[in-house]
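Problem: given the chain below (730 residues), write out its structure.
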Amino acid sequence: MMFVFISSVLVLIEPVAAGSGIPEIKSYLNGVKVPGIVRLRTFICKVTGVLFAVAGGLFVGKEGPMIHSGAIVGAGLPQFQSITFKKIRFHFPYFRSDRDKRDFVSAGAAAGVAAAFGAPIGGTLFSLEEGSSFWNQALTWKVLFCSMSATFTLNFFRSGINFSKWGSFQLPGLLNFGEFKCPDGDKACHLWTAVDLAFFVLMGVAGGLLGALFNCINKRLAKYRMRNVHPKARFIRVLESLLVCMVTTLVIFMSSMTLGECRDLVSNVNNNTSTQGSVNEEVNSTIRRFFCYNNTYNDMATLFFNPQEVAIHQLFHQNATFSPVTLSLFFVLYFFLSCWTYGVSVPSGLFVPSLLCGASLGRLLANVLKINFHMQIYSGTFALIGAAAFLGGVVRMTISLTVILIESTNEITYGLPIMITLMVAKWTGDFFNRGIYDIHIHLKGVPLLEWETEVEMDKLTASDIMEPNLTYVYPHTRIQSLVSILRTTVYHAFPVVTENRDNEKEFMKGNILISNNIKFKKTSVLTRAGEQRRRCQSMKSYPSSELRNVCDEHVVVEPTEEGQDILQQMLERRHAPYPNLYPDQSPSEEWTMEERFRPLTFHGLILRSQLVNLLIRGVCYAENQSSASQPRLSHSEMTEDYPRFPDIHDLDLALLNPRMIVDVTPYMNPCPYTVSPNTHVSQVFNLFRTMGLRHLPVVNAVGEIVGIITRHNLTHEFLVAKLRQHYITI
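Solution.
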């Protein structure tokens, strides 16, 4: 209880260190910045906390936290700086972007898997399957090299420390499944046969059902904690961790004393993997007598009072060690206790408890088939397939988990049965609920983007899901307007626009003169008018009565006299009067919807961090001067404060002249990815996800921005709501 208390207190210091960390890393690699997830303080609390949680006897694993720890190392090491040690700074101008940092986090997570299981290829595939949304060919080789380096670094030190043979490379990972092979003299023994595949499929179905039950119970427990534990004082979480520890300890002792069976040591002479005379010594070193007489041992205590990795090794390789009744009781107790434990305020993994739970189930089935049906089967194979089935039913991983288990067993012949079992377990579990990591991501409200959208969503277009109510800036804007926008909104990027008006001034971008007084032909005006009607249709979903009144008006383009500018006539008829917005004002909350949805020519996107950086560094010019007199910042100066840029509320307004003007055109992105209003949702989704975007402007055929799409507009819940609204409209 003291160990668990220390682990829980560390989580109070950094709450993000609780759990396995895989849901948070998966969210981060999906494009969502979870606060504090890759900080050095999180790393220290995570590593130390999981050490005490495992030593305290809780049913938790250390593999999940190792993945999180590896991701933190990947995020922090290339930066050569930490917020914990603010005074220690190195001038390292490379890898100063979110994309580079995300790639290093992918490599770090893969290295964590490789070190935990001794599976470098499995670690690479884990990072690809469960983590990264944005992948490229060059990243594959880098992540594989990182995973391989992690595996052999761990192997080098573990082999040297444990065997005093430096450079022998005998222990590839923290979790070792041992060697699966038949006894040399038994020619009738086979690791698995074609007949066994039928049992493996049934085990996959059972693993999927039990995994779905595990996830359902754990989800209800998580919701209960969110409602009744987390809102209360923080020490309540520590008390819950201590309660789980106390109950776990009592169950272990009481079940071993009352439910354990004393079995004879002689039954262990015939061992499936016995190749040397030292097998009995290995058995005697891991069995637990626990109140049994001489030459007998307690099979329940042998499972409970050994480290989880040793118990898994016993279930895989020691024959006739455990009775069917003991395995059944052990599975039930371990199932519910591990389900209760995952989610308390300690760093905890789920891989090893799930493997142990499933291995006991597989060994139980093997015992029944051998004793009751007298079938010639290899019990270790059934224990391995049971472990894979239950773990696959809980986490719903397929490709990476198959390769991890193959690499951990060093037996390529297990590839087909493991793959079939994992697929069946995933299909069965997906029929009832989602994987445990996706469930916890959903409970935390993270806007995670799936791999693809449903086919039915293609009935929607970009104009149906975009946000038409824009907050934008102009190429030349006064400081007071920029400060007002940045302090009253929380958006991370703003479109840079100009209005389609005859009296629109021209702005300088470097030495290139760009005119914003765009002259449209009659067909272009009719296209824009149709776009305005379409925009009003999408705005009718807003409850504002003022907006409904605007949308009730009809755009009528009357015949014009010869020589009259049809665009100007339409603008005066539809959008008059216009406030003078150049460059004194910017969009404000007092504007009517009529003023908000005026036709705007799109020129680019500029980030909040860039605007704040320009204001803090005093990049501006006076109104009686040319924009060429404005100071210019280099790329290294703009990214110097990455990844923690200054906040707008840190700005000292007394040092700024609010009448000064900022030219944002040299710093904006003039050619971001854009989509047409008629683009199908599936195309929008694929572009947004595969290119790692945060903002996707919707621009019509004449260069006017009509809306913007962010991650929120592509979440499953938002798309379902818009599809329901689409059906109601039809």
